[in-house]
Amino acid sequence: MRILDSYILKRFLYNFFSSFAILMLIFIFQTIWLFIDDLAGKGLDIVIIGKFLFYIMPNLSEKVLPLTVLLASILTFGSLAENYEFAAMKASGISLQRSMAVLIIFVSLLGVLVFYFANSVIPAAEQKIYNLRKNIGQVKPSTAIVEGAFSDLEGTNMNMKVDRKYGENERYLDNVIIHRKLDNNVNNTVIKAKTGELVSSEGSDILQLVLRDGYYYEERKTKDANENRKQPFAKSSFDTYTLNQDISRLDVNLEEDREVTTDKMKNVSRLIKDADSINTNNKAIVGTFSKSISNRMGAFLILSASDSIAQTKLMSRPADSLELFKKNIDTLRLVNLFEPYQKAQILTSALNTTTNIIGSIESKKDELDKRFKIYNMHIVSLHKKFALALSCIILFFVGAPLGAIIRKGGLGLPMVIAIVLFLTYYFIGVFAENYAKEGNMNPILGAWASTLIMMPLGIFLTKRATADKGLINFGSMIDFFQNLILKRIRTK
């Protein structure tokens, strides 16, 4: 038995590590393709690009490891079945579960390792990526500027064109043209200079752009139309002109929050603590806002003793409620007690108050939606760490019996089946997470959805493989439909 366990484990480990290397290489190339616009043609040296790819590899492993377990299990057991080694084991009295025993232990240990990886390594890698992007934006601000074309500087109110960048960190510029925009995205200022220099210090979010020997044009907007016609724009020349620009958002996809507060950068203990704090804070904000709105509306006022008694009688004797309502209907219409001009004032005031309250609620709703989305993201990230570890075990129980059923080794059919199953698993997870983050479904269910859906498939395939049955018994299906048709015919 030990020899058999060692043989199966060696076959699985070979398939596991070879599949992991191939899949990781594929995902790295996909990452390079996705970030090609951010990495290529911006003067980044090979060391920075290498660091970026190295730090993003733990993130990729979150996708690669489940697919690797699935593919390796299909390849291993498919090859054993194809070479009739399973038939020999069954003839010797060794069941499918017994042959899987050593791999079950290995995959369980792998699940523990994956959880540690997701809890410690991936958050640290996320922080490294964040800091690397931040440093690129600070130390090499010229990466946001492309030679010979206007470059929109994301997060700023201007775009820039230069003919040439040169010198250390490409800080020196030739023939600079800058367009500055108003809040309505209309260019109102043009600055031209023969030369320029980018000056920034590491750790600072302020970029100094020193321009030399140029002109400054600004379109003037005043309330007086005659004044606009007389002086439609202002023009001046300069020997040296310094622009101070906030570059905290120059880097592509840079997180707005400079603190390490995103859910992907936290481990389990931090996520539990922060999720509880965010939830408590959200409830306090909702309670305070509800109380404020209630006070503005005059709702939920404490009833006087006589009003309370009348209301109690009205609720306790439904038969008399209509008669009581008819007797007090004129009292309820308090607005009829006032003069017509006062009535109009009261109704106008009520309409204005209601409009203001609705506006306050709508604006507060957007804020609360963002707050609850952050809470949902924390809950999803917390449970994803556990779901990722369990998914490796579940996908093994999908792949191993499936390989025994299809009886094919190599990278042909097993690779196709593994990719189809993984894409199903992956896209279910993505859609469920997005729904959960938006509050359309429970965040815990959103994190576990794909794993829970694969679990019944693993149980079904294990039962089929143990009973030495095919994936689908077409004969049984045909017999079922034939019996169903005959039953309907006899009934008629």
Can you tell me about this structure?
- With 492 residues, the chain is α+β, with helices and mostly antiparallel strands.
- Helix content is 65%, strand content 12%.
- The chain is flat, with a radius of gyration of 34 Å.
- The chain starts with a helix and ends with a helix.
| Straight-line distance between termini | 60 Å
Given helix and strand content, the structural type is: alpha+beta
Low-confidence sequence ranges: 250-258, 300-305, 307-319, 327-332
Number of helices: 14
Biggest sheet descriptor: 7 strands, antiparallel
Instruction: Please give the number of β-strands.
Output: 7
Give me the oligomer status: single chain
Strand composition percent: 5-15%
SSE order, as H and E? HHHHHEEEEEEHEHHHHHHHH
Helix content range? 55-70%
Quick check: average pLDDT?
76
> C-alpha Rg, in Å?
34 Å
Shape: flat
List keywords for this structure.
492 residues; alpha+beta; seven-stranded antiparallel beta sheet; 7 strands; 65% helix
In short:
The protein is of the alpha+beta class and 492 residues long. The protein has helices spanning 2-34, 36-39, 46-82, 85-91, 96-139, 225-230, 268-297, 305-316, 318-327, 329-332, 340-406, 413-437, 443-466, 474-491; strands at 151-152, 158-161, 164-166, 172-181, 187-199, 206-219, 233-246. A hairpin with a 6-residue loop joins strand 5 and strand 6.
